[in-house]
């Protein structure tokens, strides 16, 4: 009985109660099993804890393989979001740039295009594809956990704001998960139906070994 009581006490310290107005995260304290930060003492909370003066107004560095950048305002960058069930990120996609197929295991995503045009889409669990070109002012939603992507269209860079239904949405990029790891090439070939040359080429590009 005592271990159960101790576990309940720990969980109550790690997450905001229903009576609490907020739970500003304290990264110096342990996180809960769900990944939320422990609450900062309310007496130590100030107005600045609810303000993010980060990089969302500044274009991200798109000098990379993807020609794209994501500038996050998640709970790890903005502890005031802790426990509130939302977060935000800025997407910068250069001409011919791409945010490749990926998932957010812990959140749905709402994308607002603020500059340029983006070809965006997602794939359902029945393998139906929902894809559309978005222009400035357009919104698209990506349901939680589903594979989705964004590609810049036209001859100018694109910018978008992505909001999430979690302060820590999580991220897994499909190509990196497959080819940026230490799984033996033979095993990757078996599970992807690709030949040895293709797998080794992708592993070299994405930093994988084996």
TrEMBL record:
The gene is GER5. Disulfide bonds join 23-39. Mn(2+) binds at residues 102, 104, 109, 148. One of its GO terms (cellular component) is apoplast. Residues 1-19 form the signal peptide. Keywords: Apoplast, Disulfide bond, Manganese, Metal-binding, Secreted, Signal. It comes from the Eukaryota. InterPro entries: Cupin_1, Germin, Germin_Mn-BS, RmlC-like_jellyroll, RmlC_Cupin_sf. This is Germin-like protein. It is found in: Secreted, Extracellular space, Apoplast. Residues 63-200 form the Cupin type-1 domain. It comes from Platanthera zijinensis. One of its GO terms (molecular function) is manganese ion binding.
